Amino acid sequence: MKIIEVSDYKQMSVKASQHVIANIRNSDCLTLGLATGGTPKGLYGELIEDHHVNGTSYKCVNTFNLDEYIGLSKEDSNSYYQYMCSNLFSHIDIPLSQTHIPSGMADDAAEECRRYENMIEEAGGIDLQILGIGENGHIGFNEPGTSFQSGTHIVELTESTREANARYFESLDEVPRQAITMGISSIMKSREILLLVSGKSKREAMQKLIENDVTENFPASILKKHPKVTIIADSAALA
Ligand code: PGA
């Protein structure tokens, strides 16, 4: 794992955007893995600005998001579909048909997981996966204890994850209890991974990631086994 230290959230976002833009420009048809949450918002803002100023085009980019809440429709303001539209897709020239997010409203969620995993494979896999990290070491919604062999699957969200995400909902009760997430093995198949980490709330997770052994009790630790991981972390997260 290569670690790049930057001063703050803005610099993390700028550095990450340069990396993503270089990949888009150097590839005929890049497949990007995308994340939601507070961490990548700044990156998406930088990509939008670059699209407007420098004309980087997404007409040949395909995207696969890590996860979606079960029970939230595409129209729900808290769905990750809405997050991606308002934070990125509506502001760049990517055809929506080239963007993929698991459906949280599928009649058969297990079948939706299989369909999603197959779609990633049929697209030739993910070239560059953007990741954040949870305070408990989760990546995507892969909570501690998730098998490293897991493909896209249904998860029961831990209370700590629901509490961390409650800030976006009216109350904790409204935070869904389940989600569909790419699994650890789906993430590890990506050819390259860019992990973004910012703020002192992630300091303990960063320390564990750097110092601890690889264990299913701390999902992000598996990244140590991936051949091409870059971590862009700010000083607060690395202190
Ligand atoms: P955050 O979430 O970016 O909102 O901190 C990261 C995560 O839980 O993976």
Automatic annotation (TrEMBL):
<protein>
    <recommendedName>
        <fullName>Glucosamine-6-phosphate deaminase</fullName>
        <ecNumber>3.5.99.6</ecNumber>
    </recommendedName>
</protein>
<dbReference type="GO" id="GO:0042802">
    <property type="term" value="F:identical protein binding"/>
</dbReference>
<comment type="pathway">
    <text>Amino-sugar metabolism; N-acetylneuraminate degradation; D-fructose 6-phosphate from N-acetylneuraminate: step 5/5.</text>
</comment>
<dbReference type="GO" id="GO:0006043">
    <property type="term" value="P:glucosamine catabolic process"/>
</dbReference>
<feature type="domain" description="Glucosamine/galactosamine-6-phosphate isomerase">
    <location>
        <begin position="16"/>
        <end position="227"/>
    </location>
</feature>
<dbReference type="Pfam" id="PF01182">
    <property type="entry name" value="Glucosamine_iso"/>
</dbReference>
<dbReference type="GO" id="GO:0005737">
    <property type="term" value="C:cytoplasm"/>
</dbReference>
<feature type="active site" description="For ring-opening step">
    <location>
        <position position="136"/>
    </location>
</feature>
<feature type="active site" description="Proton acceptor; for ring-opening step">
    <location>
        <position position="138"/>
    </location>
</feature>
<feature type="active site" description="Proton acceptor; for enolization step">
    <location>
        <position position="67"/>
    </location>
</feature>
<keyword id="KW-0378">Hydrolase</keyword>
<dbReference type="GO" id="GO:0019262">
    <property type="term" value="P:N-acetylneuraminate catabolic process"/>
</dbReference>
<feature type="active site" description="For ring-opening step">
    <location>
        <position position="143"/>
    </location>
</feature>
<dbReference type="InterPro" id="IPR018321">
    <property type="entry name" value="Glucosamine6P_isomerase_CS"/>
</dbReference>
<comment type="function">
    <text>Catalyzes the reversible isomerization-deamination of glucosamine 6-phosphate (GlcN6P) to form fructose 6-phosphate (Fru6P) and ammonium ion.</text>
</comment>
<dbReference type="GO" id="GO:0006046">
    <property type="term" value="P:N-acetylglucosamine catabolic process"/>
</dbReference>
<dbReference type="GO" id="GO:0004342">
    <property type="term" value="F:glucosamine-6-phosphate deaminase activity"/>
</dbReference>
<keyword id="KW-0119">Carbohydrate metabolism</keyword>
<comment type="similarity">
    <text>Belongs to the glucosamine/galactosamine-6-phosphate isomerase family. NagB subfamily.</text>
</comment>
<dbReference type="InterPro" id="IPR004547">
    <property type="entry name" value="Glucosamine6P_isomerase"/>
</dbReference>
<dbReference type="InterPro" id="IPR037171">
    <property type="entry name" value="NagB/RpiA_transferase-like"/>
</dbReference>
<dbReference type="InterPro" id="IPR006148">
    <property type="entry name" value="Glc/Gal-6P_isomerase"/>
</dbReference>
<dbReference type="GO" id="GO:0005975">
    <property type="term" value="P:carbohydrate metabolic process"/>
</dbReference>
